[in-house]
Specification:
Blueprint lengths: L1 E7 L4 H8 L1 H9 L5 H4 E2 L2 E2 L1 E6 L5 E7 L6 H7 L8 E5 L1 H6 L5 E8 L2 E4 L9 E4 L3 H12 L4 E3 L9 E11 L8 E14 L2 H10 L12 E5 L5
Antiparallel strand pairs: 1-5, 1-6, 2-3, 4-5, 7-12, 7-13, 8-9, 10-12, 11-12
Helix pairs in contact: 1-2
Protein name: Type I-E CRISPR-associated protein Cas6/Cse3/CasE
Organism: Micromonospora harpali
Pfam families: CRISPR_assoc (PF08798)
Length: about 230
């Protein structure tokens, strides 16, 4: 597995086009892999997420089974003259080091949603986005155990978790088709690993729906010690 960090140049029209359409970004990411087996395996798939940093830099993160070749993205939406356009690092060392009881800070952009019927008499079920902050937090905490982790609590007993950049995005998948409506939220928090095998699966396969559209990629950082 590999983790890639790509710096977007938002002054370029190509970058703005990709950032406006998860469908276009998905296609651009997969174009970095010559064969299907390079971006999707039984035990892993390619995940991506766009982060807006505090310094106003926009960064595309990609986790993938093999190393991507992103020259086409540099030419379309990056910094062609920069030696830091993108950086790819092996991910397996981190994955192999995960153990029960470890505490990590994390970030996740997800599609919090539920399946149900639009009306009591509807013949089929459909997916509905969870739009309130309370619903979105409950969505993640209800899935944590099955994915091998628990959200840590602060000294006051509250969950060490915040949601932000909560959006309802609408975009077209293909010309002439009905628009896609996608509820997204970004989570920052601290977690404790409870089952390393299940948790590794989250890091390599994602969590929730809409993973092709920039949702589901959970990344880790060292947790700051509590005072």
């Amino acid at each position: 597995m590999h983790l890639t960090r790509f710096l977007m140049n938002t002054a370029r029209q190509g970058a703005r086009k990709l950032l406006a359409s998860p469908q276009a970004m998905h296609a651009a990411v997969l174009s970095g892999f010559p064969r299907p087996e390079d971006h999707t395996r039984d035990d892993a798939r390619t995940l991506w997420r766009v982060d807006q940093r505090r310094d106003r830099q926009v960064v595309l993160y990609i986790v993938s089974p093999t190393e991507p070749e992103l020259t086409h993205l540099v030419e379309q939406a990056g910094w062609p003259r920069s030696s830091e356009s993108w950086e790819t690092r092996p991910y397996d060392r981190l994955l192999d080091s995960l153990e029960k009881g470890q505490r990590w800070a994390f970030r996740l952009t997800a599609n919090p949603s539920r399946t149900g019927r639009k009306t009591e008499n509807s013949p089929t079920t459909q997916r509905f986005g969870q739009v309130t902050a309370t619903q979105q937090i409950e969505w993640l905490t209800s899935r944590a155990e099955r994915h091998g982790f628990a959200i840590a609590r602060q000294a006051d007993g509250e969950l060490n978790l915040v949601t932000y950049d909560r959006q309802v995005r609408r975009f077209t998948r293909n010309h002439g088709q009905r628009p896609v409506t996608l509820v997204t939220a970004t989570y920052d928090g601290v977690l404790d690993i409870e089952d390393p095998a299940l948790f590794r699966n989250v890091l390599t396969r994602g969590i929730g729906h809409a993973r092709a559209y920039g949702c589901g990629l959970l990344t880790l950082a060292p947790a700051q010690p509590t005072s």
